[in-house]
Amino acid sequence: MNNGDKRPLLSLRNITKIYPGGVVANKDVSLDIYPGEVLALLGENGAGKTTLVSIAAGLIKPTEGQILVRGEPVIFNSPRDAMRKGIALVPQNPMLIDNFTVLENLVLVSRLAGKRHGIRLVRKQLEDLEKKYGLSINPSAYVWSLSFGERQKVEILKALLIDASIVLLDEPTTHLSPIEVDKLLSLTRQLADEGRGVVFITHRLSEALRVAERIAVMRRGRLVAIVSRKDAHVDQLLSYMFGEERIKRLTEIVKRRRSLPRGVRKDIVLRVNDLWVRGPHGGFSVRGASLELRSAEVLGVAGIAGNGQREFFEALIGIRKPSRGMISICGTDVTFRDSSARGRLGVGIIPEDRLGWALVPGKSLVFNTVLGLYSSPKAPIRFSIVDWRAARKMAENIIRSLEVKAPGPDANAESLSGGNMQRFIVGRELYKLPCLLLAMNPTSGLDVEAAERIRDLLLEEAARGAGILLISEDLDELVEVSDRIVVMSRGRIVYEAHRPFNIDKIAEAMTVS
Amino acid sequence: MVNVAALLSQALPYATVYALAAQGELFLERAGLFNLGLEGMIYLSAGVTAIISLYTGSPVYGLLAGIVSSIVLALLYGFFVITLGADQAVTGLSIVFLGIGLGDVVGRATGGAVTPSIGILANDLIVVLALLVLPIVLYFMLFRSWLGYVVRSLGENVATARALGVPVTLTRIAALIINGALVGLAGSYLFFTGPLGSRWVSMSLLGWGWMSLGIVILGYWHPVGVVAASYLVGLLYAMRPLLETVGIPSSIADVTPYLVVIIALAVISALYEKMNVKPPTAIWSR
């Protein structure tokens, strides 16, 4: 496509964003978006992509730099200002009012965007959009009752409803199944063909190559390159994304990983039999799941988010009471016992929420070490009294042996970066010398290197003899580390696969059934 | 025999006070703020109404002054909570004590003189406003208009609302003014038609604000529910003398309204959930 004779819809000029605390999220980024094109914004997590589109959508203010809409300089004091200029952001995690219906959410947005549309008119527009784009949704459904994919649909409808000429899609495929991804990509294409400018943020190279005319690559807050798809080479893009140095190091990590011993022993460390668990809204989220995990084995649980994995995990770690069925850990029935019973048995737990579940924000790493280990026989507690000196030593050990970047054991848990937090958590759980390690999405939100490190640690634990149950939404990750993968769909285990994995079969089991 | 019609009409003034204050609080809570200070605002408004009506000789000026004084307290609350980021419970309780203290100072200044009172027509107007007009207007405003969506989004999820571009501070200041005005009107009306009958007696107008807070919950944060709850509690108040005549000790008769509120809430909350009436999420998540 020839952009020379077209004026850009949106221009970002020399955008710099420095967060309070000194983190430079964007450094001197300039980017033009033209009508009728899809521009992929490619980069790994933490490269500054989300910050950049948040600035364009008026969510945050740039420290320096200028935004132009159709050549006209603008200043956004609120997302409202951006919406009124025709800029819509579809955020990675939908930002909707849960207790409102779809229609109420849409009316609210259309009003804030300055459209004088009444409730009836919005309802009618919704029907038209449904016909035109195939985005069917029940307007009187409450948002809390919607699946992730449906919520994203509402977000896209928001953009269409305010007739945005610039649509910013932030990692839109994160939580979608392969089939949903296909649909989304063709919808993206359709939006651009209608003359809109679309920015498609992704960290997946393949998606960028499939959907975009131009690919802008970001690394560490800077815009490294803009290439058109015709001239794009995978190797070139990869080195833009990671830098030559990093690529070399990553290759080494993968090599070292392959050399780790793999084996399956006999003793069963986790047995789940016909487990039924109710979800937060009363209905059953887990409906008769059964599985067995042996020591030194890595068992991956695949599935699209919202198919009962969360409730399954919560029941396994003892914070959600199952309705019936059986959970037995290392031969002990723990079905109706709490999480401290797991602690005594030496179960390591790596929950999805690092801050809140695994670590107490605002408390030191020493405190968090004690709290995480208190029910374990390895806890620095003698006759119910905390031995703070021993605890301190433990925290120091964890920081040293896992190379956690922290000022010291007294550092506030909150002040660590995601990768360092997770490393600390894993290190603490390893202190229990667990016979069983339960992990849910342990690498979500981490950059490539930090994620690799966490996977390495899990594999090393398996090599030591622990059984690892890894629930993850990232199929690539599961395929990489698991010895066996089961697929969870609508609260049931519907498929089991052994190495070597057939990814298409697994993906099919995730979406069909 | 019991004169039912008389009882039903005796309940009206009580219900009016509760309804005005509780609807004001409901509106504010829907906007995501929780003002515990109603008790102080009602008391101050009654005191200001007393002194201004006495000195100007006009109950209307007194009424307006009462409303203004209550709005000032509400905005003071807003200044602490929104601008300075103070804790809502602590600030609300401070407003209670501040309001009662100030209200007593100005109320005492009347020396217990009888002030001019509002006429029957104005009285009836306020009753109709509180028990008929207000719930209907508030219902359509909150649940059937986009302005209501703006207000309610703040009670559901402020972070999301802000990200959607809802003018958070502006909307909340507007909600505080409405809160102050309705609560102030409740206080003024209470002074004119309550147990004092347009004559200030220290410490005799207590408990109304606290009960109104309970009525918001009993009405399940819904304008129609709140007006029904107000009338129910008003009726129980009106029935107190009756309970005493049938031999129930006055101490037990006095606590009956409170007991009934607790029991009714337990019974009714399930019903509300079934009708899909939900409290604003932020009230609980904060």
User: What's the order of the H and E elements of chain B?
Assistant: HHHHHHHHHHHH
Q: How many H/I helices of chain A?
A: 17
Biggest interface, residues from each chain: A-B, 24 and 18 residues
Which residues of chain B sit in consecutive blocks of at least 5 with pLDDT less than 50? none
Total domain modules of chain A? 4
Assigned CATH superfamily of the largest domain in chain A: P-loop containing nucleotide triphosphate hydrolases
What count of structural domains of chain B?
A: 1
- Number of helical runs of chain B? 12
Q: How many beta-strand elements of chain A?
A: 22
Task: Briefly note the CATH topology name of chain B.
Answer: ABC transporter involved in vitamin B12 uptake, BtuC
CATH structural class of the largest domain in chain A: Alpha Beta
Shape of chain A: globular
Helix content of chain B: over 70%
Question: What is the overall pLDDT average of chain A?
Answer: 88
Total number of β-strand segments of chain B? 0
User: What shape does the CA trace of chain B take?
Assistant: globular
Rg of chain B, nearest Å = 19 Å
Structural class by SSE content of chain A: alpha/beta
What labels describe this entry?
heterodimer; A: 513 residues; alpha/beta; Rossmann fold; 4 domains; six-stranded mixed sheet; globular; B: 286 residues; mainly alpha; ABC transporter involved in vitamin B12 uptake, BtuC; 12 helices; 0% strand
Describe the structure.
The complex is a heterodimer of chains A (513) and B (286). Chain A is α/β, with parallel strands linked by helices. Chain A folds into 4 domains: 158 residues, Rossmann fold (3-Layer(aba) Sandwich), CATH 3.40.50; 70 residues, no CATH class; 160 residues, P-loop containing nucleotide triphosphate hydrolases (Rossmann fold), CATH 3.40.50.300; 76 residues, no CATH class. Helix content of chain A is 36%, strand content 25%. In chain A, the strands form 5 sheets. Chain A has a 6-stranded mixed sheet with strand order 6-7-8-3-9-10, with helices on both faces. Chain A has a 6-stranded mixed sheet with strand order 16-19-20-13-21-22, with helices on both faces. In chain A, β1 and β2 form a beta hairpin. The radius of gyration of chain A is 24 Å and the shape is globular. Chain B has 286 residues and is mainly alpha-helical. Chain B has one domain: ABC transporter involved in vitamin B12 uptake, BtuC (Orthogonal Bundle). In chain B, α1 runs antiparallel to α10 and α9 crosses α10. Chain B is globular, with a radius of gyration of 19 Å. The model of chain B has no long low-confidence stretch (mean pLDDT 91). At the A-B interface, α2 and α3 of A face α6 and α7 of B.
